[in-house]
Design a protein that fits this description.
By secondary structure, the chain is α/β, with parallel strands linked by helices. It is built from 15 helices and twelve strands. Strand 11 and strand 12 form a beta hairpin. The structure holds pyridoxal-5'-phosphate (PLP). Pyridoxal-5'-phosphate binds next to helix 4. One of its GO terms (cellular component) is cytosol. It comes from Halorubrum alkaliphilum. Its EC number is 4.1.2.5.
Length: 362
């Protein structure tokens, strides 16, 4: 194993596993941006955005799609369109919409959230959905929307099988409640499950996915659904400040990003390789992931995530704190198998060099 001092950090040498959002656009994307046909997309005059929206809708098997600046905006537009102020939004308690979107559902759409526990594979059971639905009456607000997530980010990039989505969505449909899928990484799910993304999306009424994550675009996400929904979503995008003008400049790389779906399998293989190697380190528990997100638990090693993150950074590896003793590493387009092996060496040095567990306060 190399000495830590040998492996640190020139900037070029830094292996950034904080997220799959850190990818930088390839030359072909930069060329496509420069050469894109553009127009004012608020007037629907941008042919490149229109082409991207059509290709995106086709990729997930919906009637229509809308190009938006971020996954967060896509989710928040969906919440706004599907619900009325004062209704409830039902979602899983570790979902991105609940955990990491600044209470946007409350502030932007005036809805109350009700959380349910995820069952096996990160999707609530139909029974849990049924129990969580609230029927409107004199005292109760009524449920406006059920939101699901696939892959499930916080639980480690879990690829939720289609039948689980179907079962949860059917329970919501029984209560006349629409379903939104936060599929920021829906293509990772599809590739891991060996199905088409349209199969993953088929049971739900709308879906978000990010072009800017593993697919490698510099910016942008998609909200997809039927034509009526997307027409309403277009107005809400404007309301939220997301109407863009010559957006073909950023949509053109997005079109190329849609060609990167199949190669996500490489990211998954690299993540499995990383998890297996980390799991072999003393005191580190890193279950084999379904997709490109590795979650490492270091409680047994007595290493807090905040310390692991800062020492990995020193050693030339980027990662993020997920919880007190839980750290996330994400593989993506800009790291290959050699980078993963180099990252493992550096992380191993950090773990080996940490103070022994019994020397730490409780
Ligand atoms: C990244 C992510 C989002 C938000 O996407 P941004 O483009 O960062 O706003 C939403 N949901 C999930 C599950 C994500 O992983």
């Amino acid at each position: 194993m190399p000495d830590a001092d040998d492996t640190i950090d020139t900037d070029d040498d830094f292996i950034d596993l904080r997220s799959d959002t850190v990818t930088t656009p390839l030359d072909a994307m930069r060329d496509a941006a420069r050469d894109a046909d553009v127009g004012d997309d608020v007037y629907r005059d941008d042919p490149t955005v229109t082409e991207l929206e059509a290709a995106a809708a086709e990729a997930v098997g919906t009637e229509a799609a809308l190009y938006v600046p971020s996954g967060t905006m896509a989710n928040q537009i969906a919440v706004h369109v599907h619900t009325e102020p004062g209704q409830e939004l039902l979602l899983e308690r570790e979902s991105h919409i609940y955990r990491w979107e600044l209470a946007g559902a409350a502030t932007l759409s005036g809805v109350q959230t009700r959380t349910i526990d995820a069952a096996d594979r990160c999707v609530p059971t139909p029974e849990a959905v049924t129990e969580g639905l609230v029927t409107e009456d004199l005292h109760r607000p009524g449920t406006g929307l059920l939101a699901l997530e696939n892959t499930h980010n916080y639980r480690g990039g879990v690829a939720v099988p289609v039948d689980r989505i179907e079962a949860a969505a059917a329970a919501a449909a029984d209560g006349d409640v629409p379903v939104h899928l936060d599929g920021a990484r829906v293509f990772n799910a599809a590739v891991a499950l060996g199905v088409d993304a349209s199969d993953v999306v088929e049971p739900v009424d709308s879906v978000t996915f990010c072009l800017s994550k593993g697919l490698g675009a510099p910016v942008g996400s998609i909200l997809a659904g039927d034509e009526t929904f997307i027409e309403a979503a277009r107005r809400v995008r404007k309301l939220f400040g997301g109407g863009m003008r010559q957006a073909g400049m950023i949509a053109a790389p997005g079109l190329l990003a849609l060609e990167n779906v199949d190669r996500l399998a490489e990211d998954h293989a690299n993540a499995a390789r990383l998890a297996n190697a980390l799991d072999d380190l003393s005191g580190v528990d890193a279950p084999e992931p379904d997709t490109n997100i590795v979650v490492a638990h270091t409680a047994d090693a007595g290493i807090p995530a905040s310390e692991l993150v800062s020492e990995c950074k020193e050693a030339g590896v980027g990662c993020v704190e997920f919880d007190d003793y839980t750290t996330r590493f994400t593989t993506h387009l800009d790291v290959d198998g050699d980078d993963v092996d180099a990252a493992v060496d550096r992380i191993a040095n950090v773990v080996d060099g940490a103070a022994p567990v019994d020397a730490r306060p409780d």
